[in-house]
Every structure is written in C-alpha cells, then in structure tokens.
Amino acid sequence: MTQRYRIGLTIALAAAAISLQGCAPADAESRSGNVDRLVNAGAEPQNWLTHGGTYAEQRFSTLDRIDAANVGQLGLAWSADLPSERGQESTPLVVDGTMYVTTAWSKVVALDAATGKQKWVYDPQVPGRFGVSACCDVVNRGAAYDAGRVFVGTIDGRLVALDAATGKPLWSTVTVDQTKPYTITGAPRVAKGLVLIGNGGGEYGVRGYVSAYDARTGKLAWRFYTVPGDPAKKDAAASDDALERLARPTWFGDQYYKFGGGGTVWDSIVYDPELDRIYIGVGNGGPWNRKIRSEDRGDNLFLSSIVALDRKTGAYVWHYQETPGDTWDFTATQQIMLATLAVDGKPRRLILHAPKNGFFYVIDRDTGKLVSADKFAPANWASHVDMKTGRPVETPGARFQDKPFLATIGASGAHNWHPMAFSPKTGLVYIPAQEVPFLYVKDEKFRWRPDLWNLGVDMMSTPLPSTPAEIAGMKQALQGRLIAWDPIARKEVWRVPHDATWNGGVLATAGDIVFQGLSDATFRAYRAQDGKELWRFDAQTPLLPGPISYSVKGVQYVAVVAGNGGGFALSLPSFDGPRVQPPPRVLVFRIGGKAKLPALAGTVASPNPVADRFSAAQIAEGGQLYGQICAACHGMGTLSAGILPDLRRAGSLADRDAWKTVIIDGALADRGMASFAKYLTPGQAESIRGYVAAQAARASK
Asked: Is 329 a catalytic residue?
C-alpha cells in the first residue's frame, strides 16, 4: 500500500467517523471522530497532530525532502510574532494547514501553516497574580487536538476546549483548588475521548495528581493522586487503593501531607493505544529535602516514578521508581517515549526515558520491569543501578544531611523538559543533555512559608563568582551537549558539545537530519549518523521548545518557537548583563526561504542611581531576602538577563514610596508582579531595595 493511499484511506475513515458522531454514545469510550486519526498520526506526515508527533512521542518526522544534501539551502519562509513575552516552550500542532501555538500566559494562536497569517487568538485572561505561583515562568508547552477541538491548560489551573476553526471556548473547567499555588504549564493529551492534564507547584506546597476529563463536556472522568494525603480524609479517587496499599507505608511522620508532598505531574503524560494505558511522569517531593517531609526515611512513592494507569478508569497498573526517596529534585516528568525494539533478539514494547537524574532507562511497558539503566551524564549522586533490585546505589553523603554535597548533576537535571527525539532509521535517541553542578546544603533554618518556595535546601550558601577568573570558571563548569544514545547497545554513539548550557528540544527526520535550537540563539541541523553540523540560523533569541516538521502542498517546512525565558534563564546569573529582547516568534523554514528577521532595536537602560543611604545590616538582610524571594524571577545576585525587569534598572528603585507601591501594595499585580505583603514587611521590602541599590552602584562602576 502506497503512503499516499494510506493517507487517503485514513482521512476517509476519519471523515466517515465524524459523520457518525451524532449517532455515537456520548460516553468517554465512544470513538470520537479523531480516535483512529490520532492513533495513526504517523500516516499523516504533512501534519503534526499530537504533542510528540504521534502517541509514541518519538518526535520523528517521516518527511524527507529536506536532507543532508540540501539542508544548507534552508532559509526562513516566514515568522510570526507572538502576543505574549516571557518564556516560550510550546511545541506547535499542525492540522490540515493550520498551526496552533500556545504562548506565555496560556494564550493560543492559530496561524496559516504556509504563510503565517493569523487566523485567531485566544486569551484565557489569566489574572496576573497567578504568575507568582509559576516556579519556572508563565510558560505553556503546547495544546492538544481532537475532532475539531483544541485543548489548552492555563496557568491558573483551568482546562479549556476551543473550537479549532474560530478559537471560541466550548467549555472550561477548573482542575485545581485555586486557593492553593497550583499551575498548569504542560500540554494536555487526548486518549479515546478523554483529555488528560496534570499540574505544577511541588515547591510551593501542593499535592500532585493527574485528571481525565470528557473531551466533549469537560466533565471529570477520573483522578489519580501521586502521593498520599491526610489519612483522616478520603479522596474517593482512582488512586485510593494504590496509595494505601503501596505508597503510604513509604512515607513517615505527618509533615508530608501538611506540606503537600509534591509529586506533581507537570509535563509528561503519554497514551499507549496498544495496551490502552496512560503513563505519567511524577515530579519531585515537596519540600525537596526528604529529612523535612518524611523524617529522612522511605521511598516516598510515587515521587520520581513512571506510573502506568488504566485509560478507562485511571486504576493503577504498575510503577517504576527511578529515584527512591528523592531529595535532589530529580523528577521523572521528562519526556516518556514509546518504542518497540528488539531486546536479545525479541521485540519488546518499551519505554525510553532520560530523566533529570542522569540515567537512561529502558523499561518494559507491559510489566514495568527494568530492562536497562545506564548513565548518559556524569551523575555522581549514585554509582549505578542494581539490576537485581532496580534501585540506584547511592554515593555516601549524597543526601547532604551531615555535610554539603557537590553534585555534578543538580536540580536543573542532566535532561530537563526539552524534548528528545528518536530515529527509527538510525536506532538512536537524541538527548539535549547538560551538566550543571549544584551544591546541596541542608537548610538549618527552614521554616514553612505558604505559597512560596519551600525546598529545605540553602540556596544562599554559595556566593556568586565576582572576579573574571571566577566567572570564567563558572561558565566552564556549565556544559551543554547533544548526545546520540543507542538504547539497545546502551552507549553513547556521538556527542556535540555546546557553549550554550541550556539546550533546546530536538527533532529527527527521515532526511537523516537532527534539528535543535539552543540558548545561544542559534537553530542548527546535524547529520543524524555522526552529529556533523550542516546548517545554522541566527534567531536573535534562544530557541528552547521542540521543533516540528510538516508539509503544505508538497513543500516541507520545519518550525520552532523562539523566545527567551523559563526558570533557568530567569534565575541563572547573567554576567554579560541584560540584552535587548526581540519579541517571541514562530520561525518556519523551507528550502529556498528568503524571509528576513527585523533588526534588533532598542537599548538597555543604565543602572538607576539611588541617593538614599542604607546600613550594612539592611543590605545584608536584603540580600538574604532577595535570594529567597526575588532571585528565581529577577536573577541570582540581581544579575538579570533582562527577560523580567533588571531591578538595578527599575524606575521605582530610586523612590522608597514607588518601590513599596510595587512590592507591598501590588501596583503591578495585573502584569504578574503580585503583592508580597503576605511575606514581607515594609521594612524588609526596604532592605531589599537597599541590597538592589548597592548592586546597582556596583554595576555603574
């Protein structure tokens, strides 16, 4: 059967199914118009129907008109500015010539996939105050599509269904307790009439779960909590049995449910149509430090685990915990990839997983049994994984309770949310890996602060480098690389080192090309077999999401979203100073593309001089408070890249009353700068101003 015939047959079957929708039963099990279409998404290479390309989430395009011989002729076909600044992490969808892109603050934009012409914009009107609960910027990683509907999660915890043709809301449901610091940044998934969504907020004091909603009505079908709650309260959820039977015995004391416990499902949710199962990646504990949340005892299930659930009911099927008793923020939320590969000469249905902790896992998805686990990065928290027990063999002292532990792979992870890709042609997984050391120091003065970061780790114990030699040493210690990994031979095949630490997502194609964006503002193409760079493009701004490929009228395109932001970019000190930020954009390329980006415009303001004088005690107190409350958004040590305001250059810095109006009174709450009156006294806010003023004076020299 030719590919053209297969595509035609698939579309015809989908159209027939749509025509019968009025006769179908209105339950979640009904075969909605796009069930077969989504299952067979690989038969429509002209589209990108699901978050990972297909349900397998391999991020592989079978289009091959762009290949190693002509990729050097790739040029910009069109670009489209997006309506929201801040971090951009969206993987676009393309459905029958229309591209759907989510952007910061959970907005959705529909564009003509051939020209970039805007069709509609949806703004969920998220109140700015919810931005303070987003640990890692007000980002959104993408939408889901099914039967003429586009689904998006919002920062304030809603799940919204939109008419794909017009962008008008069809239904909206609140999926979280909005009095608690939950957020949604991940992309929903659709599975046989159910829309699945998780949430974030593990650092702030919430309890994680995943929910399934009827795609037509928005009615809750089932919910699975990932960590046990208050034993005196009943959930009446799909997770009840598994939590009481398996999870609760692995937790100790009462702090875990008082502090929420964490375990948020903030990114990877995957549907397996062969087994009719859902696989979820579970996040870190809350607080990070197990000593605080669980008396430094127990595996704390289902933290840092992959959990398999029955798609119909949400019932527990199996789990595999990658980091028992996590105390390092080693989430398992990173991309879960499905594949059927030969192991010992026999085909097996597998999960391929490269989480934060630095080990590459191959897991049998029928049983949850570990097939292999090998380091893909130099993680020193554990020596290896014991294949008899499936447990890591930890390095003595790695849990940092008696003394600090310098981890070669820290909370940023050996691989974070940036998608990896798998090529069935080469048999290789392409991982955007990194090495970001982290000094874990127990917070001896920990106190619970509702709605703010509660880690149990002292983030202020290590001073930032100040001399040119120290700064150069820090930059050298932060390493990024693109790794080609053979999951069956269990080894690295090639690597490309990057000066840009924060790697972007990856796309592999049948043209034997691997595309990747980087935080150094370049978009690159590599030969899939050996990693040779074949092409690059200066995008003016970092490119972090996963690229996609699609075609319109026989022309192959490659698309990626560009725009600086995200948790790492916001908090990491920028020793080179803030930069002019172009607007976030969708960039789309084709062979022979001739479009050009506008030249960068604007200048960076000078540090704001402050005439007021502050005592050494004020400045010291302000430095501590800045590190605890402000640094995650405005840069460690006030060394902001300029994504959010560089406070050394803020207009309000020189005026005590203006500063108080913003920090305490919440004058800019509608723009995401909520009032901190619950957490700071006016005097403490003034101390922070003193610290920032001192840093501004230093920057002016």
From this structure: yes
Conformational region of residue 10, where left means phi above 0, alpha means psi within -120 to 50, and beta covers everything else:
alpha
- 32 exposure class (CB count in 10 Å sphere: 0-12, 13-18, 19+): buried
Backbone angles phi, psi at 291, to 5 degrees: -55, -35
List C-alpha distances in Å: 506 to 118, 163, 343, 548: 26, 29, 25, 9
User: Is the per-residue pLDDT at 503 higher than 70?
Assistant: yes
Distances 651 to 106, 611, 634, 645, 672 between C-alpha atoms, Å: 28, 13, 15, 10, 17
* Segment 148-171, tens digit of pLDDT: 999 999 999 999 999 999 999 999
CA nearest neighbour of 530 among 480, 482, 479, 490: 482
Residue 248, number of CB atoms within 10 A of its CB: 18
* DSSP string across 435-446: E--EEE-B-TT-
**H helical segments located in 461-551:** 468-477
What pTM was computed for the model?
A: 0.92
| 339, amino acid identity | A
Q: What is the pLDDT of residues 268-290, one digit of tens each?
A: 999 999 999 999 999 999 999 99
Q: Which two tokens stand for residue 433?
A: 């890996």
Which residue among the candidates 214, 272, 326, 329 is catalytic per the annotation? 329
Before 302, cis peptide (omega within 30)?
yes
Cα–Cα distance between 298 and 251 in angstroms, integer? 6
Q: Which of 256, 687, 692, 178 is nearest to 451 (CA)?
A: 178
CA distance 278 to 308: 6
Cα 25 from Cα 30, distance rounded (Å): 6
Closest listed residue to residue 438, CA positions, set 491, 391, 501: 501
